[in-house]
Amino acid sequence: MEKVNISTILASAIHESKNQVGTLLYQLQTVKESLGVETPQNRKIIQIEESLKKLNDEWVEYLYLYRLASDGYELHPDTFLMEEFLDDQVFALSPSAIAKDLQLNFECDSKLTGCFDERLMTAVVSTAVYNAFRYAKSEILLTAFQDKNFLIINVEDDGPGFVDDEEHHDALLDDNTGLGLYFAELSANAHTYGETCGYIEKSASRFGGACLSVHLPQTP
Question: Which residue has the higher pLDDT, 62 or 13?
């Protein structure tokens, strides 16, 4: 009997599950609209909706992770105005931030541009922000800037930050599956210019919390 490729089966199952979550989100939106904004049940529905969105984003992350790890992902880099990119991320994730009573903002130079794969970086930023939702006290900030030949995208929060224990470092910036940092690292590594690869760094944020920095090589 031909050997079963379990990775391909799992990837297919995740894709199907992602589609089912998408259907549930659509149905939930219909229920929310029928109940009206001011109903007592609306806040609970929003919480369920945000949980499903997070689950959907995790499925997307797993699919990208599978393709990156198996060299089956074709990078599609393009040049983006960073102000627009970060604004899009804040817009997409703001409902989840509001549901948790957190502020989500961004800062960057209005003329800053960067070259990267938009799908991968959107997934990396959303994963990092969802992780920050677990620890932030009141604020999460997205920033972007150019340092020499690297575009740097930061996700900062005002949570407890890092301690000396390396294991605890990973727990603060990783999600429940333990794959968040690995996914971010593979996604950054996939961005190359010549012999230079992208990478990630963990540090303290300006608020004393955690900061995940994604360094992406750019054309000099």
Answer: 62
The structure's pTM equals 0.77
Q: What is the pLDDT of residue 33?
A: 72
Which residues have a Cβ under 8 Å from the Cβ of 204 and sit 6 or more positions away? Answer: 161, 162, 210, 211
For the record, the structure tokens of 83 come out as: 């102000």
Which residue in the block uniquely carries the two structure tokens 């989840």? 96
Residue 59 confidence (pLDDT) above 80: no
Q: Letter for the amino acid at 154? A: N
Count Cβ atoms below 10 Å from residue 52 Cβ, excluding itself: 15
Task: State the Cα–Cα distance between residues 210 and 185, nearest whole angstrom.
Answer: 17
Cα dihedral value 69, 71, 77, 83, nearest 10:
-10
pLDDT digits (tens, 9 = 90+) for 143-153: 999 998 999 99
Q: Which residues of 66-86 are buried (b: 16+ CB within 10 A; e: fewer)?
A: bbbeeeebeeebeebebbebb
Cα distances (Å, whole numbers) of residue 58 to 70, 71, 216: 18, 20, 22
How far is 157 from 102, CA to CA, in rounded Å?
A: 10
Residues pairing with 115 in the sheet: 79
CB 183 within 8 A of CB 64: yes
Higher pLDDT, 21 or 75: 75
